[in-house]
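Budget justification note: compute hours in this period were largely spent on complex prediction jobs such as the one shown. Inputs:
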Amino acid sequence: MSENLLEIRDLHVTYRTDDDEIYALNGVDLAVKKGETLGLVGETGAGKTTMALSIMRLLPDRVGFIRQGEIMLEGVNLARATDADMRLLRGNDVSMIFQDPMTSLNPIHTVGRQIAEVLILHNPSASRDEIELKVDEMMETVGIPADRKAEYPHQFSGGMKQRIIIAIALSCNPKLLLADEPTTALDVTIQAQVLNMMGELKEKFGASMILITHDLGVVAQICDSVAIMYAGEIIEAGTAEDIFEGKSHHPYTIGLFGAIPDMTKKTRRLNPIDGLMPDPSTLPPGCRFFERCPSKDGDCGAHRPGMAPVSGTHRIKCRMFAPQPGGMRE
Amino acid sequence: MSDATSSAMAARIDASVKIHKYKKKSQWRTIWLRLRKNKLAMFGLVFFIAMMATVLSADLYYDYEEDALSHELSARFKPPSEGHLLGTDQYGRDVLARVIYGGRISLFVGLATICVSLTAGSVIGAAAAYYGGKVDEVLMRFMDVFLAIPNTLMAITLVAALGSSMFNLILAMGISQIPRMSRIVRSSVLGIIGQEYVEAARACGTSDARIIFRHILPNAMGPILVQVTQTVARSVITISSLSFIGLGISEPTPEWGSMLSEARSQLRYHPHLAIAPGVAIVMAVMSLTLLGDGLRDALDPRLKN
Amino acid sequence: MSALVEARRLKKYFETPRGLLHAVDDVDLSIGAGETLGVVGESGCGKSTLGRLILRLLEPTGGEILFDGRDILKCKRSEMKAIWKQMQIIFQDPFSSLNPRMTVSEIIAEPMKVARFLPTQNDILERVFELMGIVGLAERFVNTYPHELDGGRRQRIGVARALALNPRFIVCDEPVSALDVSIQAQILNLMMDLQEEMGLTYMFITHDLSVVKHISNNIAVMYLGQCVELSWTDELFENPCHPYTQGLLDAIPSPNLSSRKQLNIMKGEVTSPINPKPGCRFAPRCPKASPGCQEPGIGLKEIRQGHFVSCYLYM
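Corresponding output:
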């Protein structure tokens, strides 16, 4: 298992608000191999973004807390790292792409300068010319002519801005890239372009990536492995083949696939998952999906199932796949 | 037939009874709960209320004529003592009584000013934002002209032109605050006009007045209320400065600014004469500003923490 | 079959500092009673503007809008009030489309109060409860504020408000784009059920072709203010003719591994239709462009029963 770049073990994160404690992550285990792209899938409120923010250690001050667990990046526990260490790590080892390309760039600096800024910060000894050269190279890499580097963000379209953000994120050769819904704000034709480019860059740079998205179609395009989140837990994980072509699935995964409007079928009605995700401040005691689950039985409401292997790489957190009936007792 | 009517009746009663079954979380209550968490804002609120209460109930423990006005030359420049908690001034008047009666004037003028500027500012600002185009252009350019003149200078000019009575003073200060107020109202209304619920209201043929008063202004309240507290605070300062230079309330009527002005000459030997009204001004302004800051946070309905 | 809503040569130009923006340019459409027209396009193609023009929330620069055979652009404001009772709109953003200072019951009751739809407060409340039942909102939410609810429930409030006056026609402007897939399917099903029960007519605006497939009878594909292809739904998906429609269909990533690496990528980006040149507006991005595409006079042409395409290839 030494080839894992990132290993998250039993991570618990909570947010404190005035009235209650919100349980955002509840015992997440996750591993990302070197050079691998992991798709982290889930609905709003499943804890996807919290996961990325925990890895970056950018949880809101005095509100979000890592309660338990470790985040090991090449042997360093990020959950316990000091702020000074984290500042060095961010950009050099881990960088992040945010969802909204419209607000992630500083409107008063040219895009070239924004790329250069990151480069200078992480290569303090480089000369001006070296930096400029590298900026040109990064812009060409993401498919924007280098002579546009003197332009300001508002002169670029949404897709172009997202490319620049990717260039900034990649400019220090990070080992791990966290992409939080990088294409959600883009039109489909532009999304296809950006996804394609990300696929190519992934091979060129050899960085690992966690792609956070709610769109299973996007995951199918570029991810090697997939983890599906529900109410702050990973309920199914495996390789892309396991998830998209495997036989056994968590009932939530089946529901998620069923709810996607299918372009190839002619049915008129869609198959939604009934109900809503449980309120993260008062989570049910047993399986979190119990109330909405079509294949629940009496036990599910009382017992938390553990993660059980279905095949070598494929793991599911559901009573139906537990080694002994009843699952793990809480 | 009669069965149907009676069951329809039952259903009818049902609806208005049923709605009370589900408790409505009053928005004011939520705002209050949120405000209560902000210690500084609560300090401001408590202090402001205490000040209002003291000022309003002054007649219960002081005699205006006796304590604040009439000279008692045998008791000049008394240091703070049991009979005179803050001592006496150069005419032997009780300083605490004068500060309290002075507060009456400052706060009354402050609140009256805000009535003038809020009413006019809201109408001008909301109309400019809602109708846009030429209406906006004309109203706002006109306001810009006023805005270019410093507040105090404008108030001085108006008072000088109209004469320095209390009514003129309020009018002058109210008018000088209108441009600022209308700008704030306009900008917060503009932010709300773009929202889809305004469009939804328009899509069912809602009248302009109903859209402004039911959909736009309640949502624009936040920044406006903050501005209100700050404007009151600013008015307190303005009236004091006007009185300080002799244009506002003049002797013998107690007023913080004029008290300060008088105390200037005694500063060396009797500093408490200047400290008392000075502290009163600072505290009044600070409590309002803190309250305003807290209100801004508490009033945002989307903010949860 | 009679059309409930018809638009003829509908135009909306906006003055911008850089020139005249042709947001909607010569669009013809007709929606039969009880049917759904899907309007699909990328951001900036004028689809939302089109929806607001049809409701006359924006004044068109030119053209005609017929509702039930009557030209609504000639109606006075007082007459429009009566027409607005019959046409409603559901918005994309369930956050900004509901007044945060009003409770659920106040929001749903508001159109009825404005239109004096029911005589007493009691009748209105009764109708509020009825509507909440119809859209599947539990009664206990009647006195809550929208920000206390999740996106799916909020969108149900939006639907209930739109239904309050018993409209015949509803413009749905991306009603499910902001929702999660599992919730999106709930709302789409609800809207289809309502259509069947109440005989509603929809104009369904979206950027997502897979969503309109399920709900629409006809689909119009828009590009830079113009309708480039119009067809009945199955025909459009089986036999897309305009290169833009083909590109749009190809760009949707489908959730299976077999389609991997097969994304057929369209070059370039949507520009804005400011002072557009004559000819096909898609030509700069079109893989099948030829010099003929610059010629003026390319318009919708019926190439098969009910299937219209605006492309030089079919002229």
